[in-house]
Write a structure and sequence with these properties.
single chain; alpha/beta; 2 domains; six-stranded mixed β-sheet; 11 helices; globular
């Protein structure tokens, strides 16, 4: 599975990030605490190289606290990275980001005493909310739909930190299918990018494996099924998501499960661990290398056939 959701303004934003990076002192990347690997932009990681970075894990009130702790430790194993877990309920903690940026090793102040930071993150990860909190006033437009910010902005916080705000950027192709499902489940990808019932089955399968106790508690179940489809059937009948002929309406129950996950009604849930991310990245890299090798072999065979035909 490959997901393509790359509007023109995102293509433009990627070019602008590439152009602005040499002029900034530090990068602030906001990721979703429930999926820090899948919501981190690999294109940005390549572009920033060793430039100092503050990784802000947003929405931590929705994530599994123990898994978030593991992620903070894992991210800070990179000497160029500082990691901070925040939520909208912790504005004072959010405001610490300005001090963290100024104190990072290798970050220099300009002649006016300011540090310039690029602040970026995928759509719907809470970037605008963070900017408004740092500024102490509404500057950036916040919303629940992906791709609210459309243009790059320069914001002087007047506390020694100048922010360059860029639109939420997704990358052209998501090679890891699990990451695609997680992004769709979190709301980072528009609903039209994937089938909602497929996303719900992915969620149900994962919850059965990682958080069975939360499922039992939320849906009052003594026993759990073995598969996600069966779980959706059970929840659908329990919640009255019945269509014509007495069959479960999978569209309705899928929407129900996804919305309950996003609102943390099932519980505090993380969709990936550092160990999962490392393992999946290894598999995806191997697959891409194999695909590239096959393409190279096919191209070589075509060239040889072309030469033979010309003799």
């Amino acid at each position: 599975m490959s997901i393509n959701w790359f509007p023109g303004h995102m293509n433009k934003a990627t070019r602008e990030i590439r152009e602005i990076l040499p002029k900034v002192d530090v990068v602030i990347e906001i990721v979703d605490a429930r999926l820090p690997y899948s919501s981190a932009n690999p294109v940005l990681a390549q572009l920033r190289a060793s430039k100092p970075c503050v990784k802000v894990l947003s929405k931590t009130d929705l994530a599994d606290p123990e898994i978030t702790r593991q992620w903070l430790e894992y991210l800070e194993s990179d000497s160029a990275v500082r990691a901070l877990a925040v939520s909208t309920r912790q504005p004072d903690k959010m405001r610490r980001i300005a001090d963290i940026c100024r104190q990072l090793p290798g970050v220099r102040q300009d002649a006016t005493g300011n540090v310039t930071a690029l602040i970026t993150g995928i759509p719907n990860v809470g970037k605008s909310t963070l900017i408004n909190t740092l500024a102490g006033r509404p500057i950036a437009k916040a919303g629940n739909e992906p791709a609210v910010t459309k243009i790059q902005q320069r914001i002087d916080l007047r506390n020694g930190l100048v922010l360059i705000d860029s639109p939420g950027v997704l990358w052209p192709r998501i090679d890891n299918p699990n990451s695609g499902y997680r992004l769709a489940l979190s709301g980072a990808i528009k609903a039209t990018a994937m089938q909602e019932d497929d996303v719900a089955v992915f969620a149900a399968d994962y919850l059965l494996q990682a958080y069975p106790h939360l499922l039992r508690q939320r849906y009052k179940l003594d026993q759990l099924p073995d598969a996600g489809v069966e779980l959706l059937e059970i929840i659908g009948r329990q919640r009255g998501c019945i269509g014509s002929g007495g069959y479960v309406d999978f569209e309705r129950v899928s929407t129900l499960l996804i919305n309950e996950f996003r609102a943390a009604k099932i519980g505090e849930i993380s969709l990936e661990t550092p160990q999962m991310a490392v393992a999946e990245e290894t598999v995806v890299r191997q697959q891409l290398e194999e695909k590239a090798a096959k393409k190279e072999a096919a191209d070589k065979a075509r060239r040889q056939a072309f030469k033979a035909d010309r003799r």
